[in-house]
Amino acid sequence: LMEKGQVLAFTNEDVPFTFSTENLHGTVIYDGLTSIPMLYKKPSLNIFQPDFCRPINVRHNRILSMFEGIHVHEYVMKLIDFSQCTNPSDVNTCPEVDKLDVSKCISASLPEKTIFLSKAHFYGSNDKTKKQLNIKGFTPTRDQHETLMYFEPYSGTPLRAHYRLQLNIELIIDPMIESESGSDLEPTGREGVKRLVPILWIDQEVHVNRTTINKLRMVHLALRYGQTFIIILAIILIIIIIVIIEVVARRMSKNETNERANRYIILWLL
């Protein structure tokens, strides 16, 4: 059951791209379609995204009470560069980056470092990246630009997910001006400026229907409080057993006392 939904290999029909988990030395990658049960033991998940030919890492962030009593596990997306892991079998040793090169996944004819995947509006990018790539604009916020996923922990069912990703193209802007004749461009003598320009913003929210949530809530509450109920029941049974043993012991002691008294009376009469 724990191996269901794991991706072993991937081939893209549109571009000459292949993928195998053997290259990642045992890193477990899931297909994103199969529910992964018992998330209490999974602080990090690698979910393969065929649109970008790579797994996206999501990590447990916190536990929230949602959907009228379900303690959901919130996961946050991390852009991980698997090619830079110090230990390929441990995703925690892979650096988190601000952008990932997905050029060859988009088209085999594109040169590398042309199309980059990032968080929406470069949310979470460090100041060095922003300065290096001349990223300017408003300041993104977690509520509007972070990718968040909410799972029911026992079954692993995703109850709500909000995907926010962005594709960018790296350009060099040549500061040229129109010639006086207006038919050509003339150099200005200034150097070109490299910029990372957004070309596509993905903002998609998915919800599980109310009927499924109601069923999951019943199972979730039964499992969550079932353990507590069993513990309380076990304590009650132990107390009952102790009381029964105590009552039996007292009765036996009382019977022995009565027998001794009867023997004493008989001997006295004799």
Question: Please, could you describe this protein's structure?
Answer:
The chain has 270 residues and is an alpha+beta fold. It folds into two domains: 9-208, no CATH class; 222-270. The protein is built from four helices and twelve strands. The strands form three sheets. Strands 3, 4, 5, 6, 7, 8, 9 and 12 form an eight-stranded antiparallel sheet that branches. Strand 4 (54-66) and strand 5 (70-78) form a beta hairpin. The protein is elongated and about 140 Å long. The N and C termini lie far apart (81 Å).
Characterize the biggest β-sheet.
8 strands, antiparallel
Would you report the number of β strands? 12
Structural class: alpha+beta
Order of helices and strands, N to C? EEEEEEHEHHEEEEEH
- State the shape: elongated
User: What share of residues is helical?
Assistant: 25-40%
Tally of structural domains: 2
* pLDDT < 50 stretches: none
Residues in β-strands, percent: 25-35%
Number of helices: 4
CA-to-CA gap between the ends?
81 Å
Radius of gyration: 33 Å
Average of per-residue pLDDT values? 81
